Amino acid sequence: MHEWRRQVQQIVDAIDESIAARDDEALTLRALAELLGYSEFHTTRRFKEVSGMPLRDYLRGRRLAFALKEVRDGDASLLDIALDHGFSSHEAFTRAFKRAFGVTPSAYRADPRPVVLRTKITAFDRYVLGMGEIGMTDENENVEPYFITVPAHRFLHVANRESNGYWDFCQKQNEIPGQDMATVCGLLDSVKGKLDDEGGAEANAGGGQVMAYVSDPAGRLCAWGFPRVECLGARLPRDWAGEVPPNLRLMDVEAGEYAVFEHGPFDYERQMRTVEDKIEAAMAAFEAADNGWQFDTAPGKVIYLYFDPARFCKYVRPVRRA
């Protein structure tokens, strides 16, 4: 199963790359099976075994997710978008779009409301499986804090008062109907205008979604010594006035000074725990130092965690003058 998760992740990555490149030939079942060197039947069976859904359904959902963003953000004709994403006609695209999102492409372009997109799955994750790092690392990058001023903005999110850590957050959210991770990530992915959106499709990896910790006297006491509530959401402009889905919350975040604790690119399987330890040590040293600053944990303050191993792992924490 461990190896199959790796191979299914190959298919998942190849699907997104091929959709983005408009490479329909690479998206056929035959091509995806050849990528792994197995029969089409064996590939589809294993994909469903690992991901919990048929390969054809996942592929259709990702095609529509890519297409929806072009409908929302671009000016290409709906027919061109339909043909670019493998639909035989405008009518076929409209039927599939409405079946998936409850609205036609033309109506959505005129009024882009939050809908649930099929986000990219992660079939392989060593930490979900309890495996941790592979071996040791000789990576010696230090984590040095730097300061930034974050303008006032809004934070659209789902919060969990019971969770303790990212994977516990995911597990607890998946037990809540309408607030499971697939639904929440899909809704956030469809929202236009996210401040951190760089065109990606995964939480914390360029798609505008970010983990956060909101200081809250009624929250769970964290290892950093103050009560907080864990959240997954997206930062939005201060004047954002879009529709808020009933299962998400919107809060205003005032402008302020933040300290950034950032580690550069790293190998997730080999170095994740090491990177976490380095960042935690850097934050502890900052808190203990007599440097004229201290972490600001007043109610309503938000810590953001950005996680994308290909680029960085970083905490962005509010601070104030000591």
Automatic annotation (TrEMBL):
Keywords: DNA-binding, Transcription, Transcription regulation. It comes from the Bacteria. The keyword tRNA processing does not apply. It comes from Gordonibacter urolithinfaciens. PANTHER family: RIGHT ORIGIN-BINDING PROTEIN. InterPro entries: Homeodomain-like_sf, HTH_AraC, HTH_AraC-typ_CS, MarA-like, Tscrpt_reg_AraC-type_HTH. The keyword Transferase does not apply. Pfam families: HTH_18. This is Helix-turn-helix domain-containing protein. One of its GO terms (molecular function) is DNA-binding transcription factor activity. Residues 9-111 form the HTH araC/xylS-type domain.
